[in-house]
Amino acid sequence: MTAIATPTLTGPGGRPLRNHAGIGQTLANTFTMAGRGLLKIRRTPEQLIDVTLQPILFTLMFTFLFGGAIAGSIQDYLPTIIPGILVQTVITASVVTGVQLREDMDKGVFDRFRSLPIARIAPLSGALLADVVRYAIATTLTFAMGFILGLRAGGGAGGVIAAAVLVIVCAWALSWIFAYFGVVARSASSVQGISFLVLFPLTFLSNAFVNPSTMPDWLAWFANVNPVSHLITAVRDLVNNGAVTGDLWLALLGAAVVVAIFAPLTVRAYMRKA
Fold it and tell me: Among the four 17, 204, 208, 223, which has the fewest Cβ within 10 Å?
């Protein structure tokens, strides 16, 4: 039997024309693309180094190096350092969203997606959804290391779960910023460079490792207004006391503002190229 090729209708610039995808198809295509992202991780597990080895190494290193000097003992330092390491690790992992997005675009993967009868937004939304799994892995391992070292969560299981969800939600919100960089940047290395230039001051010049009251006045001011500090404080309150404080609402408000600004920017920039 002779196969009959179906011609592809093209529009301006030779790009294939596609029917407008409904919400149902868009969601289905998003989950399919997310599954593709998870399949890539299974085939190349080294992609998980930043969310597997990093939380373990950072927890051991900072705890044993600074626990005695800062808090007097490792046990007393754990309620401070574990939330700090957790937030630093998970939000840093959100950079990978933009890097991998840029790599896929550079390799022509998105050119192949254009010829498929899928929602145009699905490759982008699928990548963002798949990375939630990476955030969950980093969160689980960080808490696991904390409990192994002797962390006792005064907030109970509910506080730990709420803190984990809060960090994952905020990391997902930040991933929109780096997805935007991934769409507009010229290379994956430039995405990584720009992203870490933004994240490093925010994560290290915060209350992640020490109390801002021990810092110079100008640095303490920055650490106190730093949105990462508010997120870390909210996580500490949930894990150690099970308390819902104003810092939690500030963290969620910040995440909502980031999504409200960068989601439309990212989608618009992506659609121009997709």
Answer: 17
pTM of the model: 0.85
What is the SS3 string spanning the chain?
CCCCCCCCCECHHHCECCCCCCHHHHHHHHHHHHHHHHHHHHHCHHHHHHHHHHHHHHHHHHHHHHHHHHHCCHHHHHHHHHHHHHHHHHHHHCHHHHHHHHHHHHCCHHHHHHCCCCCCCHHHHHHHHHHHHHHHHHHHHHHHHHHHHCCCCCCHHHHHHHHHHHHHHHHHHHHHHHHHHHHHCCCHHHHHHHHHHHHHHHHHCCCCCCCHHHCCHHHHHHHHHCHHHHHHHHHHHHHHHCCCCHHHHHHHHHHHHHHHHHHHHHHHHHHHHC
